[in-house]
Amino acid sequence: EKPQVWPKRKSDLLKVKNKIIAQDIRYHQASENNQYVSWRQNLLQIKIASQNNERFALRVNYLALRESLLKKKHTPSIEIKKTELAHPLKSTLQEAYAFAGMQTIFTFHSQPVTRIKFAHEDKDLLGVASLDGIISICHAFYQPQRIRTLQGHEAGVLDFDWSMSNEIIISTGLDSNILVWDVRNGKCIRRITEDSICDSILFYPHNNNLFFVANRKGYLIIYNLSTGKSIKRLLLSAPLQSLEFNYNGSIIFVGDKNGAVHVIEYVSESFSLRLLIKQNITKKPITSIQYKVWLTNKEISPLLLVSSCDSHLRLISVNKDVKTKVIRLLLQRQIKCQITKDPIRSSFCPLISQREGACLVTGAEDGNVYLFKRENGVCINTLLGHSGSVLDVSWNYDESLLASADKTGVVIIWKRSSDAT
Fold this sequence. Notes:
four-stranded antiparallel sheet, 13% helix, 28 strands, mainly beta
């Protein structure tokens, strides 16, 4: 079976969306299609809240629906049933997140694997960064193997990010260099030298000609990919370790070594950065931040998942006052997990609209991978197999595979059970 190639350009994505919308009149008459109508309503709510960000709506909220429709696009009538979904509804989250075992194990890195990321909209392509200074590009779903290595850093790689087209990777390492890679041929096409180590790097989600880095001198920096020049710098109060955007790109969340989360406003037209609030979450370093929008009772509820070296994961709601426009971070829940010294990352499970309840996944220093229920923090599954601290975890876009990486350089690809997927 050949990998499915999803459209990469915005115009092609809009064509897919328009095909789906064109079927609405046919679908909403069918009694079996109440779930589809519900999805469409949720999508429209999030789209409005995301300031018409079609790419977010396409990427995040109806991936399984799109796959089902594209597979049947030549049939005269389509009825969407639970059994046709990539991940049908289960009676419990334990059943929904059951795993068949290990798809494969990669052992080609000699040092700790610091970062793993599946490519955008691709269930197969995986990037693996290590302190041995190498980034590996791998097939994980179809014929698992390493297909390319990106070698150019003079010391360990700390972080990297895929462009939306999956053709470019940006990376940062202990050599204080930022490298720009052409994934198709594995060549480094630009090298930028910073005056400090950068622990986190991200493409700007709505313009991949810009990327942001956070360094150990406390600077948040905007770079132009084409010129390699910095556009703007904002000095914060402590070494910075993690970065995350909200989905319309107007807010940046930055975690620092002293346990504070900085909320920064970004205006793309003028490249201006303005600190809105700084909130102390803990006294220990923040190792990762992830932002997700949830739909609860037809209300939009943005949440941060924050990992820190005080043995806790934190779910923090992002509240914006309608009148004053002031943003507040409110602690919603703390979940205990063994994270005390290693820079361990955690992640929300990406598919949130197809089941009651939702989950998050994290590594830990005991060598296990834990899945927790978001609503109450209960552990619903534990994956055993690593022999060192699990430093990072990553889902592919349809949740058919979960990748985890550890301090010994081992990457395990976990396959969801056929009953769950």
